[in-house]
Amino acid sequence: MKKKIGILTFYPMHGGGIFQYIQSMVDALAADKSSTYIIFADENDRRFDGYGLEVRKLTPSNRSGLNQVIIFSQLFLGMRQPFFLRDDERRAYADIDLFMSPATSVYPHLFLKKPFIFTLHDMQEKYYPHAFTRTERFKRALRNQALTKAAKAVICESNYVKEDIMNFLGGNANKIAVIQSPPPDFLLRYEAKPENFAAVKRKYGLPERYIFYPAQCWFHKNHIKLVEAFNIIAKETDEDVSLILSGSQKDNYPKLVAKIQELGLEGRIKHLGYIDYEDIPYLYKMARMLVMPTLFESVSIPIYEAFALGVPVCCSNVVALPEQVGDAALIFNPNDPADMADKMVQLLRDKPLATELAARGRQRVRSFDHKEYATKILSVIDR
Prior knowledge:
By secondary structure, the chain is an alpha/beta fold.
């Protein structure tokens, strides 16, 4: 009899790269016929309606403030009882043999006492504690410790994160699998429609030449240093280029706006906020490059998106990014605006280099096909 495997896809569209990571995991497992896959999604999420899989939609009860208190009290006390679950949730999850949690979440699998596999994306709070409140650090520590201890297996996307799981959480190396996720399947075979370029350009008021950075305004995304680097390009070179930013206008956004105004770059830097998902490939393809100045990243989904769409990449030399890009990108010190500016100018001026890096990136990402990705995940499930 086939195993019933539940894939938990509860994650906000505006929540960063994990949203795309979830999409890639479903893309990979949807073709497997050795098990029965059941998607658990928010009531208004229609992403997986056409996948030919059963989709069970509900509103998770863990989002209420009271239930959050109950959950973290249980984590603190080492209890795994589903006190907070409604009857409809219990029924929805009752027949599942194994849960896959692509997001680092405890809901609902930890409290159902059922086997589960989860992905731990990073432990940046250990390196940049000042970017998190004391409460956030406490919650992350409780959650990661409980999940790592109870999980049948832990997936991460780089050897760097695997080492962190072993060092900070005492994770058993034998149950930690390093599996890099490709971009969503539709990007690997994406064919742009020529008539859409002009429409997207008008829709967002895009300039002729621009550098693109899609990221939430979180501290570690390093927008401030990027703006300082772009200021060097704007004030000290003759490059007629703009900087286009996208992502949620929360968290560090006020500081970003203040820095742009302080440097008088309002006419050269534009923050678009949230981009409609169907427009994102065109934002990439019209850009001169993707810049990724992050201070901490296990694996960058936007880098793989740029690779898949044939866009040259310029990125940080931190954590696992050199491991991810290999020889397919220019890398810089994200704490050094001058170095960042120098690498971006190099890519702007050297068209043969930009073309070569784009070709290497495309080749690199196409080696991560969803069939191979599925095979690696299935080997963890089977083990």
